[in-house]
């Protein structure tokens, strides 16, 4: 599916199953919470923390999808076309970072 299609699917789900969008500040708090869940998995799977028994069933893909869902909600409710925004962002990065990373001795 395209990003545009994902935005339509999420909007349809919100307006039928979810009843309505939470306000933008609530969704920002939810996004922070979801990113925290991703961080928890990353710290345990790729970092030095160990899994508690209750963390062992955590699913990184599902948590990343939760982050994407809330980002799409925020874009929808603020009138942002994420597909256009991503294209514009990639163009900016191409101009700004064209040689930056190639010339970085740390990489």
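Q: What amino acid sequence fits the structure above?
A:
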């Amino acid at each position: 599916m395209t990003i545009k299609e994902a935005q339509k699917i999420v909007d349809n789900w919100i307006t039928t199953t979810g009843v309505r969008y939470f306000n933008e500040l609530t969704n920002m708090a939810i996004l922070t919470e979801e990113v925290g869940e991703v961080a928890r998995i990353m710290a345990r799977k790729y970092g030095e923390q160990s899994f508690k028994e209750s963390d062992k069933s955590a699913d990184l893909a599902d948590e990343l999808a939760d982050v994407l869902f809330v980002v799409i909600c925020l874009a929808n409710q603020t009138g942002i076309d994420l597909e256009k925004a991503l294209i514009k962002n990639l163009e900016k990065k191409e101009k700004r970072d064209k040689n930056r990373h190639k010339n970085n001795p740390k990489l």
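Q: And what stands out in the fold?
A: The CA atoms of residues 34 and 96 lie 30 Å apart.
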